[in-house]
Amino acid sequence: MPAVLRSLRAMLGRWLAGPRSRGAPGRGQTGRAGERLAEALLRRQGYRILARNSAARWGRLAGRRRAGEIDILALDPTHPAGPVLVVVEVKTRTVTPGVTPAARPEAQVRWRKARQLRRLLRLAVRRRRWAGPRRIDVIAVELHPDAPRLRHHIAAVRS
Q1: d(Cα 11, Cα 3) in Å, to the nearest integer?
Q2: Edge-to-edge, what's the strand order for the sheet holding 148-157?
Q3: Residue 89 φ/ψ, nearest 5 degrees
């Protein structure tokens, strides 16, 4: 197991072991942990990471309006049609033993978020002058006390 995964697993174990206190993870820490795990998964699958947490703006002037943030922008060189530019949305949930989660993390990508992801993909394509294929993936991360579980949904959002 890579060192990054071992350290994340140890942190998650400590966080999930006791009640929420000052040292417990907040939304930001949980999301960052999920993004690190998702990035490690993509690297193992042969993807090349181009950017992480890349904020984008749209409008006539760059500072006009914030379009959102791309969790991970990657290049999938393993696709048969050639390299594919991929916008990856990472959804992370902490799973507490004995508590049934309300929904799977990937279920949180609804129509409004899908519209935002399509807009971000268009901006990334324009900014990088990309003419090849493109898609939007979702990686769901469930932080269980024993080990994190990841699900990679390829082309989860119609682009």
Answers
A1: 12
A2: 48-58, 65-76, 84-94, 134-143, 148-157
A3: -100, 125
- pTM of the entire structure? 0.77
Class of domain 3-157 as given by CATH: alpha beta
Rg (CA), the chain: 17
Task: Give yes or no for residue 19 having a pLDDT over 60.
Answer: no
Rounding to the nearest 10 degrees, give the CA dihedral for residues 1, 156, 96, 2.
10
Tens-place pLDDT, residues 38-69: 999 999 999 999 999 988 765 554 555 667 89
Domains of the chain by residue range: 3-157
Q: How many CB atoms lie within 10 A of CB 47?
A: 20
Residue 22: strand, helix, or coil: coil
- DSSP letter for 63, please: T
* Nearest C-alpha neighbor of 156 from the set 100, 102, 117: 117
DSSP class of residue 34 equals H
Structure tokens at 133: 């294929």
User: Is it the case that residue 9 has pLDDT exceeding 80?
Assistant: no
For helices 3-17 and 27-44, the axis angle rounded to 10 degrees is 150
Residue of higher predicted confidence among 61 and 128: 128
Provide the pLDDT for residue 65: 63
